Amino acid sequence: MKLVRVALDVPLPTLFDYLVPESIELSSGDRVVVPFGTRTRVGIAIEAAQQSEVAPEKLRPVARVLQDAPRLSREWLEFMRFLAAYYQRPLGETLVHALPPRLRSVRPLPKAICQAAALPPSGGCFVSEHTLTEAQARAVARMRQTLGRFHTFLLHGVTGSGKTEIYFRLIAEALARGTQALVMVPEIGLTPQLEARVRTAFPHAQVAVLHSALVDVPRTAAWLSAARGDAGIVLGTRLAVLAPLPRLGLIVVDEEHDTSFKQHEGLRYSGRDAAVARAKQTACPVVLGTATPSLESWQNGLAGRYETVAIPERAVPGAQLPQVRTIDLRVEPETHGFARSAVEAIGARLARAEQSLVFINRRGYAPVLACDACGWAAGCERCSTRLVLHAADRRLRCHHCGAEAPIPRACPTCGNLDLRALGRGTQRVEETLGALFPQARVLRVDSDSARRRHEHARTLDGIHRGVGDILVGTQLLAKGHDFPALTLVCVLNADSALFSTDYRAAERLFATLVQVGGRAGRRETPGEVLVQTRFPQHPLFAALARHDYAGFAAAQLAERKAAGFPPFVFEAALRAEARKLEGALGFLREAAHVVPASAEVLVYDPVPHVITRRAGAERAQLLMQSASRAALQEHLRRLSEHLYAAHAPGVRWHLDVDPIEFD
Predict the structure, then answer these.
(1) Handedness of CA 407, 409, 410, 413 (dihedral sign)
(2) pTM over 0.85
(3) What is the set of domains in the chain, with CATH numbers?
């Protein structure tokens, strides 16, 4: 009887051998149902085996082959092997979790999914009312030349430069060649408006939308449409890059700098980096678009690994980049969070029937509820952080573990009835603006007000049509949106990132300010950005006022190189959590000594996380660096083998390759 090796979703880097009954025809890439312990599971057949290390009498047969979805191709399996090896995760876990949840079940697909997926392949015309600028036309002409072969473009276009129109022209070329186009965005919230634009521009194309917020039927149907090659355009978040795409001819990664492309559980992959690897495997071009490239991508452009294409002006005739001005809070103190000139600027826009956006990247009413009498502050019992006050529903919430508590009537330590809300979040800013401008329509947009995708899409559509005089928002409003009437952006609390221990903090702050400022003045009416700060002479704000990303990036790269930080070294973090901190630290110390590092790999001492306790677990991490990616990968491979073979009771661990957060 024949043998087959099957990948299963288990936390071990192991393939399992099964017998193949004569009545079953089986090939690599088939989804199979197999017995495992006392249950049956869905696995993926990887390869035939000549013999097994398991005794013949212990081998069990494959129960059946699932034929309700396309067989997974050899190219897709190789891509998944690469991701599993690079990010040090079990192959079975990587493969199975790349499938929609419904395809991981032993139950057959319902008819609704099969009928939704059984549509003809897409094709058709491209519809656009826009005339390309000279810079856009040059970019399209250059990128069009690489269709059919691997090439990485860094499309560095200022906000409002019409990067989406460039994407559309390339998609039209890819469809005309009979290939598929994959378009990735960082946030689920950006998919509805982009989907609407795609469907308008390509009325006869079949579009598959993939992201984690979709329920079973539409998500599985979209995945099947992509996997069968029916969908000409696949639009989604980072998980879309994991879909089988048999005719892939173009990949677009919009807002490539965004940290949301990094997965923080399971397979901790970078969607952007995976897209570049996928394009290389498939021999197709990949376009990384942004107004504020990540320093890794910018350095790749400087080194010639990526080709940088610049779009230095806005696409709408007469539209200019907004004027950026700092408000020195040392000279002009704030009242209820606002400097007087900021309030006057908002009032002037109201008088002209123009929209204003007040940006503060902190949701809730206030970050701290405290007692002046004894110094008590509301903290989370499960995390080493403060609870955030949410005044709308009178609750205290932890933004790390989700714990909630009612607002106490008095201080639990001294009984003082006069508790104070310290700091500001979006809810408090909304309340303040409502009092300052009672005649204005103040609209708050954050993850609390946008819990339902369709409601969020309706809100954004309303803003685009002019609903709302003053917008209050977090990063949900900072990128990818085009609000024609918006001419003023006022940024609150910008200084908090200037003195962070995270070496990426300045890069992220600059990107955020450019992105949110880019919402202003995208038509003929000039835009203005006001940044309230106590450090107006900081070089970051000077570069922002000059719209000088290249100068800012040069200074940051010089600092990174001197300090020995990415992109000049490669990093990985081994992270552990246990009931007690010493348990996590002890596990990491042992791991550092059991697998000695080579001379090319630097292993630091384990340290607690900045937020040491989270969701009741004490957390610590071990950082590893090397100037050689190959040397670091070899060390991680040996370390991973040891960790999976060892048994550490009471400790949970994971490896994070190319980490971007250390909290």
Answers:
(1) negative
(2) yes
(3) 2-74+87-98 (3.40.1440.60), 134-311 (3.40.50.300), 323-366+423-558 (3.40.50.300), 570-657 (3.30.70.600)
